[in-house]
Amino acid sequence: MTPSPCVTIAEAQMESRLVKQSKRLKIVTTVALDIKNQRPSLTLSLLVQFFLLALLGITANQGFYLLGLYYASPTFASAMQNSVPAITFILALTLRLEKVNMARRNGLAKVIGTIASVGGATIITLYKGPPLLQLQSHQTLGDHNSEEMQQNWRWGCIYLLGHCFSWAGWMVFQAPVVKKYPAKLSLTAFTCFFGLIQFLIIAAFVETDLRNWKIVSLQELFLILYAGIVSSAIVIFLQTWCIQKGGPVFVAAFQPLQTVLVALMAAIILGDQLYSGGVIGAILIVLGLYLVLWGKTSEKNITEPPSSLTKPLLLNEEEEIKVDDAASKDIP
Questions:
Q1: Cα–Cα distance list, 35 to 23, 29, 32, 46, 325 (Å)
Q2: Using an 8 Å Cβ cutoff, are 120 and 277 in contact?
Q3: Residue 55 lies in a domain
Q4: What's the superkingdom here (predicted)?
């Protein structure tokens, strides 16, 4: 009995789909095996380096930031973060991971930008200045309360400086570790694991009251979910996508915009006060950051071609066909 044309076409389509899925499964399996083969064997030296990465990038970084945010304000915490690229440049220059040619404009721009950024962070730390807006929120009366606020402000700035140096040190120290252990997902997992252990040890000594560990309101639950879903998962995905599209320098160029947005939202929503010293320091940090980024971009364009903003994030249909055709040659 001869099968009908419709049945033949359906069987052919089903067979084509099965072959295509088997090809893709083989490609995914091959990629997974390649990633597994990139993971070197663990040694005591690597575990110690993972522990130090967690100490810098998670424990000290986030711990100092939360303390600084508690004593200062979101506006100046965001402004201080703009000095991280310049601090990273100083650490890399000290460790001979970065070279500066003062005879070129890009080298001079990096040095001037670094000085301006560090100077802006210093102004925010040491000089508060008069308030720009007479807001009613967070106001206290009395000389004792005023002196206490000033003391808390200085401590907040010191903690935020520790946060910036920890963040910069983590980025500088991460570069040689990634070369030794190129499995980035496993490296991230080990770093988060050691960071969790370190925070649990600290919390066991600091938070001895078990009542502080309970979630007592929907607001606390919302903050935890927001920090995990939005601040971590979505932000990391978007930054990874943007870095693949435009490069890390392109993404870092938008960092100063965070300061402006945080200042406006903190003043409108939280009623935080804006001070002249913080505004002057933030302007210097933004100008210094852009000088450093311009110098890095100009230096990169001399040695390497600029990154393409039109490079697709995922394979398009034509590239998938090429991959499938190449993989089909390996299937008997």
A1: 18, 10, 5, 18, 22
A2: no
A3: yes
A4: Eukaryota
Domains contained in the chain, number: 1
Please give the residue range of the domain that contains residue 182. Answer: 42-205+256-328
The letter for the amino acid at 208 is T
Mean pLDDT of 18-22: 43
Whether residue 36 lies inside any domain: the answer is no
CA proximity to 193, closest of 49, 51, 65, 60: 51
**pLDDT tens readout for residues 233-287:** 576 567 656 655 655 555 566 666 676 677 667 777 877 777 777 778 778 878 8
* pLDDT tens per residue, range 76-126: 787 788 777 778 777 877 887 767 777 788 888 878 887 887 777 777 766
Are 84 and 167 in contact by the 8 Å Cβ rule? The answer is yes
pTM above 0.70, yes or no: no
315 in a structural domain: yes
Q: Which residues contact 165 (CB under 8 A, 6 or more apart)?
A: 87
| Beta bridge partners of residue 131, listed in sequence order | 275
Among residues 255, 253, 248, 238, the alpha carbon closest in space to that of 307 is found at 248
> How many angstroms separate the CA atoms of 169 and 82, rounded?
15
Give residue-wise pLDDT tens across range 198-224: 888 988 888 888 787 788 888 888 987
